[in-house]
Amino acid sequence: MKDISILIPTYNHTCVELVQSLQQQANQLPISYEIIVADDGSTLPHTIKANRAINNYTNSRYIERPENAGRAAIRNYLAYQASKPWVLFIDSDMVVRRPDFLRRYVETPKEQAVWDGGISVGGDANLLKNNLRYHYERAAEHEHTAERRQQEPYRDFHTANFMAPKQLMTEYPFDLRFRHYGYEDVLFGMTLESHRIPIHHLDNPLSFEVFEENEQFLNKTEEGLRTLYTFRHELKDGSRLLQRMEYLGWILPLLRLFHHATKKLERRILLRHPSLFLFSLYRLGYFATLSEK
Q1: Which of 163, 209, 210, 280 has the most C-beta neighbours closer than 10 Å?
Q2: Cα–Cα distance measured from residue 73 to residue 178, given in angstroms and rounded to the nearest whole number
């Protein structure tokens, strides 16, 4: 079994219950462990106050960072804070549903490799019937199976739930240029592939059950697309959207015109009705307009 540092980056999210779930499982295993939550400059006082309770738990600490450093920097910071030979990164909005979640990780072979547990999609379908993010994730859930991810292990790597040797994370850190939402995991996967470091995909998901409101999700989507456009040359071999846009190159002018003419209407509809077809069209049109700037 592996001694492990469980690392949780968070921003404006209370993750006390997540820490409790992980601690309960860790205490049942013959391992040495620690849980470190790093707050990346949260702006919600009630969230910060609630998370301070983590400092009262055994082998756990909550680090308050005064400024938002970005998605890559906070993960690199956590990796250097870790004292155990293995690190398990978990997004703060994940939920532990499997009673053997931690055991499945610490019993994996001790090879220099990355282990990606994947995610499942939870939540109440009736309460979330008008939530765009929920419907988007549910439609993509079949792509999250371990068997499916292992077909293209580097392209289907995600940072929400993965384990790696600490040495590997400090030798190949996340790219600090990725301050905003999206695609730092794509470049990290490409980095691992270029250095022939294996990624193994496990059937060991965490449950995704926190879905932002439609307007916030659309804003995050646009932010992610801007990140993708900024790093389009480096990500061209790892992003399916970039490859799709290259295939659609001859109709990009039409996509731009269509988006300019309909974006306000599309957005109003998406805020009320979670149409995945319209959402896909909106993403393509928004990305097409970025090349104008």
Answers
A1: 163
A2: 8
